[in-house]
């Protein structure tokens, strides 16, 4: 355009390099609506009444990003439901199988182990106990 200086090579290259990065926050695999990674428990979290998790079953606590399962012997296990692949919050529990909405990774809610890639690292285990009839989970394990 006449009267307007041409952009420098540096400006063109910088713009080209930054363009893909700017779009990453809007991708369907984005960790959260605002681009931030979902929160993991940083201290003890009261999840609910002890009776909410049946023997041999699991319960997903979406707001806390935690899943709790109860073994046949009555013992509890808890895991963070922040996917280890792309840090997306897992929001779907099918029986005792967690399914990540971002890329389809699947985890066993009883063990935290990966059942289906692309995730290759198990979910982070949390300590869990029952206090005064309430399930309390904490990252202090």
From TrEMBL:
- UniProt key word Metal-binding: yes
Please give the InterPro entries that the UniProt record associates with this protein.
Answer: Rieske_2Fe-2S (IPR017941), Rieske_2Fe-2S_sf (IPR036922), Rieske_Fe-S_prot (IPR014349), Rieske_Fe-S_prot_C (IPR005805), TAT_signal (IPR006311)
Query: What cofactor(s) does the depicted protein rely on?
Result: [2Fe-2S] cluster
Please give the Pfam families that the UniProt record associates with this protein: Rieske
Q: Which domain of life is it from?
A: Bacteria
Q: Which GO molecular function terms does the record list?
A: 2 iron, 2 sulfur cluster binding; metal ion binding; monooxygenase activity; oxidoreductase activity, acting on paired donors, with incorporation or reduction of molecular oxygen
Q: Does the keyword Iron-sulfur apply?
A: yes
The record ties this protein, via PANTHER family, to:
CYTOCHROME B-C1 COMPLEX SUBUNIT RIESKE, MITOCHONDRIAL (PTHR10134)
Name of the protein: Cytochrome bc1 complex Rieske iron-sulfur subunit
> Highest lineage ranks of the organism?
Bacteria, Bacillati, Actinomycetota, Actinomycetes, Kitasatosporales
């Amino acid at each position: 355009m006449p009267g307007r200086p041409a952009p420098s090579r540096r400006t063109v290259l910088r713009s080209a390099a930054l363009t893909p990065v700017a779009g990453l926050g809007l991708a369907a695999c984005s960790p959260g609506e605002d681009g931030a990674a979902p929160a993991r428990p940083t201290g003890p979290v009261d999840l609910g009444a002890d009776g909410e998790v049946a023997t041999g079953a699991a319960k997903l606590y979406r707001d806390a990003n935690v899943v709790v399962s109860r073994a046949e012997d009555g013992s509890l296990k808890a895991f963070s439901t922040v996917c280890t692949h792309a840090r997306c919050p897992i929001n779907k529990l099918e029986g005792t199988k967690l399914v990540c909405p971002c890329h389809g990774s699947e985890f066993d809610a009883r063990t935290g182990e990966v059942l289906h890639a692309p995730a290759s690292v198990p979910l982070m285990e949390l300590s869990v106990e029952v206090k005064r009839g309430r399930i309390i989970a904490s990252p202090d394990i």
